[in-house]
Design a protein that fits this description.
Elements (H helix, E strand, L loop, with lengths): L9 E6 L11 E6 L9 E2 L2 H8 L3 E5 L19 E3 L2 E6 L11 E10 L1 E10 L8 E4 L1 E4 L17 E8 L4 E6 L11 E2 L18 E8 L8 E7 L2 E9 L9 E8 L6 H4 L5 E12 L6 E9 L10 E6 L1 E5 L5 E8 L4 E8 L2 E7 L2 E9 L3 E7 L3
Parallel strand pairs: 1-22
Antiparallel strand pairs: 1-19, 2-18, 3-5, 4-7, 5-6, 6-18, 7-17, 8-14, 8-18, 9-11, 10-11, 10-17, 11-12, 12-13, 14-15, 15-16, 19-20, 21-24, 22-23, 24-25, 25-26
Length: 379
């Protein structure tokens, strides 16, 4: 994440409890970059998908050789295609839902209490956002609950698909036991540079989207979801009642992408258009790295500027915060307000370093080359 240069005298960091490692092992169970399809565009078939991703369950929509309904546009020659090393989803003019746009398939994955899904996505130049559409996510319990279900399937099942909305705003669109809506939730992603604003994606730009889902205890509000865009934390929920049975697990990769909503006038595009995908990955029983969440509060002080809070998710590695002031002070607190430590640095960059669940201040200044001093504060 690139931070803007800021001039400030006091920087206060509130450190939430460090994330519990999912497992000592880390298993990558899906990994498809489509590099085998580097040539011209060709229809992507159900048999190709199952070769690339493993067996599927449920309906396969808008892939050649998949399930058909009403012989509509997605079974035509403009169905989902693969070529030039990427997957291309087709959205025909005037069409909505999964039988007529995008693609849908579901792969069973190794049951896990904590799973990560990641993929790259690009909306074609000039993409017409309309009222919105679905993007892939995870699901578990016994099935992938979806489709504005009137709650008949949400007590033992859950899903965590994503959506784009008008103007490229983004949401998590979960179905979960405490959902009060017939359809999915609307958990907006926030701009990491302007956290008071909803994040808006742009067309003709590749983004890497990662969802991290960790199940808590049954009937408790302690399941967790985090969404990242290009490694920037844009959504974090740590108090979700996601499961009602102790043995519930995350069991499916829900690779789905279509326009809708149910209203043609609100959701259907007025032109044919495409979304491109690449680098589909799923890990089970393991985070990519240990993580501590850092809501960062910039406070006013002598010679400083005051700005809104912003968030950064520090993983095993270093967070460097550039500073232009002659003197910068940093104080780190726990979520309960306990001071972990303070550190001051003159004419320098300051930051944090998290490694093996140990947290250090960083003091980096130019003196016969860059000199870095680290001070252990622990968490």
């Amino acid at each position: 994440m690139v931070f803007r240069s800021i001039s400030l005298a006091i920087l206060t960091l509130v450190i939430l409890a460090p994330r519990i490692a999912f497992s000592q092992s880390c298993e990558l169970v899906q990994n498809q970059n489509f590099n085998a399809y580097s040539g011209d565009w060709q229809n992507y078939s159900k048999s190709m998908m199952e070769k690339d991703f493993g067996p599927s369950t449920g309906l396969v929509k808008c892939l050649e050789g998949g399930d058909k309904a009403n012989e509509n546009n997605c079974t035509s020659k403009k169905t989902t295609k693969v070529g030039e090393g990427v997957l291309r989803a087709f959205f025909p003019k005037g069409q909505i839902l999964g039988w007529a746009s995008g693609f849908t398939w579901i792969n069973p994955i190794k049951p896990s209490k904590a799973t990560i899904m990641e993929y790259r996505v690009k909306f074609e130049k000039g993409f017409e956002w309309t009222k919105g559409g679905k993007l892939p996510g995870l699901c578990g319990g016994g099935q992938c609950v979806a489709g504005c279900t009137d709650h008949q399937n949400q007590q033992k099942n859950f899903s965590t698909r994503l959506m784009w909305h008008q103007d490229g705003t983004m949401i998590a669109y979960p179905y979960w036991p405490e959902n009060t809506s017939r359809c999915g939730g609307n958990w907006y992603w926030m701009d990491p540079q302007k956290p008071a604003n909803k994040l808006e994606l742009k067309s003709d730009v590749w983004y890497t989207i990662r969802q991290e889902l960790e199940l808590g205890q049954a009937n408790q509000k302690n399941s967790k979801m985090r969404i990242y865009v290009d490694d920037n934390l844009v959504l974090e929920r740590n108090n979700i009642k996601l499961i009602t049975e102790a043995d519930a697990t995350i069991r499916f990769a829900y690779w789905t992408n279509y326009v809708g909503g149910s209203s043609v006038s609100s959701f259907a595009p007025k032109k044919d258009q495409y979304i491109f995908f690449d680098d589909f990955k799923v890990w089970v029983d393991c985070p990519s790295k240990k993580m501590v969440s850092l809501p960062i509060r910039r406070q006013a002080g002598a010679g400083s500027t005051h700005g809104p809070d912003f968030h950064y998710s520090l993983r095993d590695g270093k967070l460097s915060i550039p500073a232009q002031s002659e003197w910068v002070s940093m104080t780190v607190f726990t979520a309960q307000g306990k001071i972990l430590g303070s550190y001051s640095a003159g004419n320098t960059e300051v930051g944090l370093h998290l490694v093996s669940n140990k947290l250090y201040f960083i003091h980096r200044r130019h003196a016969n080359g860059f000199e870095t001093t680290e001070k252990l504060i622990g968490i």
